Amino acid sequence: MASIQPGLSSYARISHARQLLGDVPGAISAMKLAVEAADGQGEASAWTHVQLGLIYLSVGKFKAAATEDRQALFAFPDYAYALDALARAEAGMGHYRSAIGFEQQAVNRIPLPQYVSTLGDLYGATGRPRLGQKQYELIGVIQRLLVANGVKTDLETALFDVDHGIKLHASLALARLAWRERPSIDGDDVLAWALERTGHCGEALRYSKRALGLGTLDALKVFHRGMIEGCLGHTAAKRAWLGRALRLNPQFSILWAPVARLELR
Questions:
Q1: Which DSSP symbol is given to 89?
Q2: For the chain, which residues make up each domain, given as ranges?
Q3: In the prediction, which pLDDT does 3 show?
Q4: How far apart are CA 254 and CA 132, in angstroms?
Q5: What is the tens place of the pLDDT at every residue in 84-132?
Q6: Predicted confidence band at 40 (pLDDT cuts at 50, 70, 90)?
Q7: Closest C-alpha among 240, 200, 198, 190 to residue 220
Q8: Is 94 left (phi over 0), alpha (psi -120 to 50) or beta?
Q9: Distance between terminal CA atoms of the chain?
Q10: How far apart are CA 143 and CA 153, in angstroms?
Q11: Which of 73, 123, 142, 209 could be bridged to 131 by S-S, CB 3.0 to 4.6 A?
Q12: Distance CA 175, CA 62 (A)
């Protein structure tokens, strides 16, 4: 299809498929074509720049990611998606003050649970846990509003709860529900992580293998696999997977990258 009538959507789909298969250079090339196709189209242009930035972010190229995010904001000012992505790129470079500022702007524009969670994590990482907790307390309210308006948030809610140690067994049940309703490698990964956090190590490994089965280069999924291997008592495999996660992206998560480094000491 792309060879017959190439355009923004075709290039973006090709990029996504290549990224899922672990072909990051190919994903970048295709998304650059999407950027060119969307040039001058306002929000569409901004979206493609953010998508390209997220690919760079996934492999730890934070400066390149931030450049794309700023291009997105030039094309479409106050774009919440770009503000959130830029916050994460800035955090990856250790610029936490600016990261908090951009994430707060994203929350002010569209208070999505994942934006509020990231803001809370940033406050926690900078020694302000009370401010972080205030953000976390908002998430339940936002999620209930989204559900009331027909928006499914099971997967995102389960991941947030598992990451923050909230009602882990209930979170596992929610992750199972999300996996059934929204099958994907992300659903596989969240369920695997919830299983690991509740001690179901063998079952966790099965879902982690599914999550990574396409060869996707996602450092958070790789980290989860490392922790699952550790849960099973496979020390060498644990260290190998955690090391791989940090090599892929040394700042892959505000919460979990420091844990990976500690586990490897």
A1: H
A2: 152-265
A3: 47
A4: 13
A5: 999 999 999 999 999 999 999 999 999 999 999 999 999 999 999 999 9
A6: very high
A7: 190
A8: left
A9: 50
A10: 7
A11: 123
A12: 30
Closest C-alpha among 263, 265, 254 to residue 115: 254
What does the alpha-carbon distance between residue 219 and residue 169 come to, in Å, rounded to a whole number?
Answer: 25
Query: What is the dihedral sign for C-alpha 259, 260, 263, 265?
Result: negative
* Size of the chain in residues: 265
What the block records as the tokens of 91 is 């955090």
d(CA 24, CA 31): 10
Residue 193 to residues 95, 107, 220, Cα–Cα distance (Å): 29, 26, 10
CATH code linked to domain 152-265: 1.25.40.10
Q: Taking the model in full, what pTM does it have?
A: 0.93
- The span from the CA of 39 to the CA of 265, in Å, is 47
Q: Which distant-in-sequence residues (6+ apart) come within 8 Å of 107 by Cβ? A: 115, 116, 119
Over 70: is that where the pLDDT of 2 sits? Answer: no
What per-residue confidence (pLDDT) applies to 6? Answer: 67
CA–CA distance, 192 with 179 (Å, rounded to integer): 10
Reference 65, options 93, 45, 97; nearest CA is 93
Joined together, the tokens standing for residue 84 give: 């959130």
Residue with tokens 């996660």: 245
Per-chain mean pLDDT for the chain:
94
What are the structure tokens assigned to 30, written together? 């295709």
**Could you give the count of Cα atoms lying within 13 Å of 132 in the half-sphere of its Cβ?**
14
Rounded to the nearest angstrom, the gap between the alpha carbon of residue 241 and the centroid of all alpha carbons in its chain is 18
Cα(66)–Cα(147) distance, integer angstroms:
32
